[in-house]
Every structure is written in C-alpha cells, then in structure tokens.
# Entry
Amino acid sequence: MRRSMGSMTLAILFAVATACGGGGEEADTGGTAVDEEQAGPAVSPDSAATVTGVVHFTGTPPAGEPIDMSEEPSCAEQHADQPTRQVAVVSDGNLANVFVYVKEGLGDRRFPTPDEGVTIDQQGCEYHPHVLAIQTGQPLIIKNSDGLLHNINTQPTINQGFNVSQPVSMETTKEFSSAEVMIPVKCDVHGWMEAFIGVQEHPYMAVSAEDGTFRLENLPPGTYTIEAWHEAYGTQTQTVTVGAQETGEVMFEYSSEMAGRPVPLGEPIDLHDHGAEHRVASAGR
Amino acid sequence: MRAGTMRMGLAAVAIGLAPTAAAGQADAPGKATYDRWCAGCHGAEGRGDGPGAATMLPRPRDFTTGKYEIRSTPSGALPTDDDLRGVILDGMPGTAMPGWREHLDDREVADLIDYLQTFSRFFESQPPPEPMTIAAATSAGEEAIAEGREFYEKIECNKCHGEQGRGNGPSAPTLEDDQDRPVRAADLSENWLFNGGGSVEEIHERLVTGLNGTPMPSFHDLVAAEFLTEDQLWNVAHYVRSLAPADPPQVREVVRAARIEGELPGSVDDQAWEAAERFYLPLVGQVVVEPRWFAPTVDGVWVQALHNGGEVALRLVWHDPSESPDPRWDEWRSKVAALMEATTASAVADTTAAGTEQDTAAARADTSAAAASAAVGRPGDALVVQFPREIPEGMERPYFLMGDERNPVYLWRWESGEAGASELLARGLARYEPLGGAEPGFVAAQAVFEDGEWRLMLRRTLDGGGVEDRLAFEPGRAIPMALFAWDGSNGEAGTQGSIGSWYFLYLDQPTASTVYITPILATLLTAALGVVVVRRAQRRANGGVERRSRTESTEGGRA
# Structure
C-alpha cells in the first residue's frame, strides 16, 4: 500500500515540477494561475539541472505500534495484516517518507502556481500519502474514499489551519498560502491517522520513495541548500552545486540513534517578529 | 466604573515602570487591563501559561496561535472583533473563563481586543476576518428535531458525542486539542455548559464554523457538497438543542421525598420513578484537601427520592462517558494525570511557582502517590451519599468533606463492579471504616450504566435498626445530605473527585388525618383569637369605632 502511494506521490510531484518548469504541455497552454510577469524567469530546458539522491538509514527502526481499528470494521477489513503506526518506513537501508526540498539558493525567483491539485486520500482509515509536498496556492484535494466520518484537522503554525468534516465519500479542496515545513494533519475520529504536508513557494520538493530515492528536476543552475525532514529523525541539510543540464547527487544519512519525536514543526513563533517572510506567497498571487 | 478605570490607570503606571519583555507593546492601551485581569491565566505574553493555568483543564487559550474556538468565521480563520467581545463579556461556561460584562467597560474591552491581537502575527498578516453568511433558521418543532436526529447520525456527530449526545462516542477517549491535551466531547444534554453558549443559534454557528483548536470540525462544506441543505444543518442544531432541558436546572436546597402508599420502586428503571420530582445537585472538583482535583468528570447529579413511611429510596442519575474500569480510557487517564500532576503534588501547592517549564518538570518528577497509583491501577466509578449520623437539632452539620475525627458522617457508598453498595462511617475524605455491629444493609441497591449515564437506586429502612451511628430517617425533618462522585477512567479516586455541599433531604409527612385537621384547627384558632381581640378593642374604643363603622356602611349603601 505504502509503496504504491509513495511512487504515486513522486509521480504527482514530477508532474507538478514539469508543469511549473514550463516543460509540460499544460504549462505551454497557459495552465498556470500566475501571470507571466509575476512568475520568475522560466528555466529553459537547455539549462535545467537536476538534483537526485537517496536517503539512507542505518540501524533498526522502531517496530510499528499496532492500531486497533475494531471500531471501524470497514477500515479494518481493508488491511490484510495488522495495521500499524509506522514512524519510520525502512527497506534495504533506505528511508521513505522524507520530505526533501530546496531550502536556499533560489533567490528572489517566483514560480507559477500549478492548477493541478495534489491529492491526499483517506482510505482504510489511513492517509495516502503519509507525507506530501505541495506548492503555496496549489489545490489540495482531500478525498474520502472510506465513506465514513473523517475530519481533516490541519495544525499548521505558520499557515492558518482548517478542520472540516467529511462524513461520506467526497472531496474537499483547500490550499495553503505560506511555505511551511511541516503541517501535521490528523483525524480526531481516528486518533491514529496522521499525515504531514510540506509547503513551499517553489516546485523543488519531493518525498523519498520506498527505495529512499528522490529527484528535484528543472532547477535553474546554481548552488542550493537541500533540506531533508523526517517526522521522527529530524532535519538535515546538504549543499549542492549544479550547472546547466547537470545532475547533482545528494545523500542523506539517518540512523536509529537519532533522537525520536517530537521533531519541531514549522518555525518557532517570534512575537516580536511581525515580519513578512511567511506571507510572500499570498502577496504573489 | 470610574474608580475601576483609575485603579487600572495606576496599574498601568506600575507596569510601565517595570521592565517588561514585550517592550514594543508596553504602551498599548489594553495592556494594563490584560495584565491585571487576564495574564494570571493567559500569561504575560499570551501563551496561555499564566500562574493559574496549571489548575485548568481545558487550559487557557494560547493567544499566540491565533486559534479561537468561538467564531462567526470559517474554520481556521481568525475571529472578528465581535466574536472576541462576545467571549470576553459572556465567558465560556464550560471552562474557567468567566464573563467580564460587570467588570470592564466598552472602552476597556475594545482596547483589550486590540491588545489580544498583538499576540499573534496572524492578525497582522491575514485580511480582516469576515463572518460567514448564516442561512435563515428553520422553525423548531418535532419534524425539525426528527430530521435533525437523522442528520446527527448521518454526519456522525455520535462518533464523538455519543448516540444520545452525552460526550461518550467511541472516539471520545482519544480526543486532543491543538496542543495535544485531552479534550472532552461536549455533553450535549448540558447546554448551559457549552463554551459558545447554549442557544440554537449558537449551536448552529458552532456547526457551521467549527471550534478552532479542538477536534470539532466545520460542517458547512457539506452544504456545498450537497450532502445536506442549510435547513437540514439548522435542524441538526434544533435536535442538539432538544437534548438539553428548556431551561438550565435550578438548584434547590431541599430534595423532597414524596410519600407513596405501598411498595417503593423495585428497580432503578421502575416506572414509579417517572412521577417522582427530579432535583439537580451540582458538583465541583475537590480543591480543599491535598491532593486536590481540578479536572472532574461529574458536574452534577439528578436526584429523586421516595418513601413509604417504612423505607426510603434514592434514585441518582449522572453522566459519565465511561463505565470504569475501561481500558479504552487508559491513555486518557494517563494524559490527564500528567497534566494535572503539578496541581496535585503538594510540592507545588504554591501556584505562583507553576507555569515555568522547569517547575512543571520538577512537579512531574515529584509525582504524588495518588496520581501514581491512579495511573497504575484502573479505578472504578463511585458515588457517595453523605448523611450525618443523626438528624441535627439546629443548623450544625458535620464537616462537609466526609466529616472529621470528632464528628464522623454516615455514608452510602456505591462502587462500580463487584463492590456494589455499602454503608460506612467516615472521618474525613477517604478515611472510611465499617459501621459497628452487623448492619442490616440496603433493602435494594441497583446500578445501571447505559450510553454515558449511570442510574443508581439505593433503598433502606427508615429506622436505624439499632445500629450505632446508622442514621434514622424521620419524615418531616430536614436531613442534611451531600454527594460525591468519582470517574475512574479520569483517574479519580480518594480525595480526587467531584464534591457537593450540604443539601437537605426532606421526607414528606404522612398524609394522615392530622394533615387535614391541623389547618382547620389553625384557622379556627386564629378566628377565635381574632374575635377576642376585636371585641376587646371595640370595648376600649367605644364611640370612635361606631362612627367609623357607620361611615363604612353608608359608603357600602352608595355602592
């Protein structure tokens, strides 16, 4: 289940990245929500660079906590094995569900907002995907495939959250206006349900797949600080320089020795800082 | 009010002299009011961590998050100034937040609202919040309520609030607020304790906007999704309103036990109880004796009483979301214990020391024995009816917290599970001992737990059966009575539970012949006395009286 969802996330991200970079057909036909003059300089295909990498994991990840789904038989049925609450999904020494994004190096560039939404589905009383990446202003399509009551309670510290109910199979569309790493999502009806949303003003972000790989495409040549975020093992940064049409590699190393939860979410709120750095996106739209 | 403003002015001066952290806001006109009245709970910097905060569950609002429960605005949005004003003036009845209508004038409230908004950057960065458009209300009535019930189930309010709205849905034990603290699903039958008010309009607004920072979501998207109509959402509000009585219960000093002929009810759900009058006795957390308890579950008990001259029966009904012991509430219990430890451990009895992280950590390390044992064991639910050992002649009663060494009290104690009901003597909270001799015990004792409600019946003979310290009930006399309750799933045991003050149980006098004769005799006596007095007066006053009576008769003739 997780594997397919992980790759689906990647697929979506690729689509997003392509559309934003101007490489996709949709982008050519003006499928973006931002005026050309407001969007930054397009990354031309002959200069676009790529950053790829793998998130490694050493040690033994904690065993997943079993989830008692007996109160929702229709959800329990969807799990052949005992469902568990997994804080670290590791296979062959690679860590999945790590949010990887360009933290610094893009300067003042602005990027068009994709029309195409990113979907988070509630299925089998779990979120799919568990970690997802979305651009500011991009539609977040919240889907309820279970057909029973879920409430989607987002708990950002920088954005304004929301808490809406979905008692039946339905879709709700929301968006976030500011970059934030990360926004926890929970369902109060099913206390075990948890997801994390990473929001950036640019498209250069990904979630590591089951095999730990990630890929950031269509980057302008430059030097970037790449940050990796994991819900239990925290953040790490790497610097990478890529030239035109080059592919840079970045490796992140996590281990079971690293402290467990909680990982700080978002940035601490400074009362004396009423600055504008967190609301650039809304101004740009 | 002028004096108040002056005092506040002085406070402002005093604070202005003191070096404060929030220098940029020191000259804000609302600061003085805030520091004086609000900071004690909400903290000097609005983080919800004032010295009083540790004794409260739910905790005071952390203003830095910009999340406010009671709003007219969409889910996640900021409140309007009017929303904030409403909460400041009326308070939040289900919490420690009082209303300030009597204490602050319009100017002070307006300044306070401005000042509150400086605590969160959201008020600056977001566009001014707009109230949601509220559709016209449907009219209340049986049909509206029936449809509301249907949608109560369809939108699954029962998941948290329970089938009958008693805050006992399957998800209730796992609910947490935005700061990961346990939070109750409201008991919808107690609308006088709703944080945002108990009117149908207020209930509807909560359904439309949700309560930010809590698990309660907004249900308004469902209208756009055509899952229900605006009317149907209004009808849910009508249904929820119908779960509570038309008026909040009035607390009366005396619980009357009507006298009935023949057998007393044989069971707790006997039809005979339907005719018996219901009395509401409120309970609060026990905060007098250490270890104290600031987070009680049971906030009131409905009492009915009947007697037949030979026996007395009490029917006690209260809401408790769990039938303890219940493993589903284990996590809840430990979370509540962790939050309330600081207040139960005697080491931090000084509340001024609470609030800082260091102190909280120290308090956690210094776990009180009671809290520890509550976390290890899985206590049951319990209820105690307290009486004096004999009916007092005057107003003197034993110490209300289960008596003391000198003046013990006689108790009816009931516990869930196998323990059942027993009679005890107590010399202070949790100092129980059995009654001397072989006590005759209860004629009948029965408890039923159903969907978040305990119903308990206890029935005993009026006479004490010759057992020392065993109260003999007497009709026609005011018998002091007090109630205590514990919710094991909330970690309540020993001194940590809900308590009530002394009320009276009054067993109606037998409706024997004397009931009819006494008033007649009294009337006759009064009349006879009157005649004697008047005759005497007439004799003394003579002519004067005659003149007046003549005038009266003339007037009477004219009429």
Chain B touches chain A through 42 residues (CB under 8 Å). Chain B is about 30% helix and 15% strand. The first strand of chain B starts at residue 254 and ends at 259. Chain B has four domains: 2-125, 142-242, 267-330+381-507, 513-550.
